[in-house]
Amino acid sequence: MLHFKRVFTGSGCQNACPFCQAAGREAEPSQAAVEAAIREACAENILFWGGEPLLRPDINELACLAVRRGAKRLKVRTNARKLVEADLLNSLIEAGVWFFEVKVCGPTPEIHDAVCGRRGAFEETMAGIAALRQVTEMRGIKLTPYLECVVPVVKENLSSLEQAVQSLLAFEPDRIHFELSDLDLPLTRTAAYLRGALETALFNKVWATTLGLPLCVMAGFEPHVREALPGAPTGRKLKPCKGCALRDVCAGVDAAVINRQGERQVEGQLAPQGTSRYLESLKLLRQPLKVAP
Asked: Given this model, what pLDDT does residue 139 score?
């Protein structure tokens, strides 16, 4: 799995998601500041995130700079609302942005708009994804931009996660990624809905992953838990983790969840595993790659 260095572009956005990680940060860093972050990242894979990166008038210049500094893959996390602007979309792709993470908060206008705090956002996001999927050729070269749909998991959309997957299938996403964004959600209850959503995606041959839930509560879907992969965020191990077969390959529980719900309450939701058919494979993933002499 590719790992992208994150470059913050500002917190400005057309949406008002209450769980946004960019909230409270600088509204729009200067072009010089973002350029410095790109040079400091010095990475082959760079992710532009906010807020909404596509609101920056200099986003293409920033992408071109990243390529000049050695980036081979550029990704943008976006709500897709501006992708309906053909000139912008085409210029992004020409500048080297071939990976798109599109945040989709629900399968219907009622759910999506309620989560992101803006009426009409769902229609514009769907139109943006459709516009992206219409790009199949540029300057005589066939291409298909990579589409990853990111679904923030919150109480408003928890029971509709399977429906969210079904609504996205028409766009043929390369991956659907679920991120626990509501720290008050019980882990076991959330896992039950996520299992259904993962099964729906996999049945339709779409790769799907999760972030924010420990391996033990996602037993049976360990390869789809982002924390099981190298470079993933780490959390805390609690008392029930001591006897779990997955202890050595599990990142633990997100500290933010523990701080929000309380250690005892979280411990009561964990499900230590005696074994896992994926254990040896997960151990292998964590071993450093051997470089031929």
From this structure: 79
**Exposed/middle/buried for residue 236 (C-beta within 10 Å: 0-12, 13-18, 19+):** middle
Q: Residue ranges of the chain with pLDDT lower than 50?
A: none
* Residue found by looking up tokens 């924010």 in the block: 212
DSSP secondary structure letter of residue 252: -
User: What CATH number is associated with residue 188?
Assistant: 3.20.20.70
CA distance 199 to 90: 34
Is residue 51 in some structural domain?
A: yes
* Residue 277 tokens, joined: 């058919």
The pLDDT value recorded for residue 3 is: 84
Q: What one-letter code names the amino acid at 78?
A: T
Residue 196, H or E segment: helix 187-203
Which domain covers residue 76, as residue numbers?
Answer: 5-211
17 vs 32, 83, 115, 165, CA distance in Å? Answer: 27, 19, 6, 20
Round to whole Å and give the CA distance between 279 and 293.
30
CA distance 55 to 78: 10
159 within a domain of the structure (yes/no):
yes
pTM exceeding 0.90: yes
Measure CA of the first residue to CA of the last residue in the chain; give whole Å.
24
How far is the C-alpha of 79 from the C-alpha of 269, rounded, in Å?
33
In a domain, 257, yes or no: no
Tokens standing for 229? 């992969």
162 domain residue, yes or no: yes
Q: What is the pLDDT of residues 185-238, one digit of tens each?
A: 999 999 999 999 999 999 999 999 999 999 999 999 999 999 988 777 889 999
The number of domains in the chain is 1
